[in-house]
């Protein structure tokens, strides 16, 4: 995988996939992050992921 600025690119065999994200600085603690995926047909799906930033595990 290659990381350039605000996007990450993954190339597997003949397939090309680009991930885009905007940098956010977050305070330590528990957060919920929304992950949205849109395919080439325009169909989208979204899921919420609980994450713990910094601190103990």
The topology string of helices and strands comes to EEEEE
Poorly predicted runs are 1-6
Strand-residue proportion: over 45%
Largest sheet: 3 strands, antiparallel
Shape: elongated
Identify the strand order in the major beta sheet: 1-2-3
| Ends distance | 27 Å
Helix content: under 10%
Number of helices: 0
How many DSSP-defined strands?
5
Average pLDDT works out at 76
Which value, in Å, is the CA radius of gyration? 15 Å
The secondary structure category is mainly beta
Would you mind describing this structure in some detail?
By secondary structure, the protein is mostly beta strands. The protein has a domain of 34 residues. It is built from no helices and five strands. The strands form two sheets. A three-stranded antiparallel beta sheet has the order 1-2-3, with no helix packed on it. Strands 4-5 form a two-stranded antiparallel sheet. Strand 1 and strand 2 form a beta hairpin. The protein is elongated, with a radius of gyration of 15 Å.
């Amino acid at each position: 995988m290659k990381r350039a600025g605000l996007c990450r690119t993954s190339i597997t065999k003949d397939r090309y996939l680009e991930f885009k994200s905007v940098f956010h600085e977050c305070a330590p603690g528990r957060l919920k992050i929304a992950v949205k995926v849109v395919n080439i047909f325009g169909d989208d799906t979204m899921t919420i992921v609980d994450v713990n930033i910094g601190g103990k595990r």
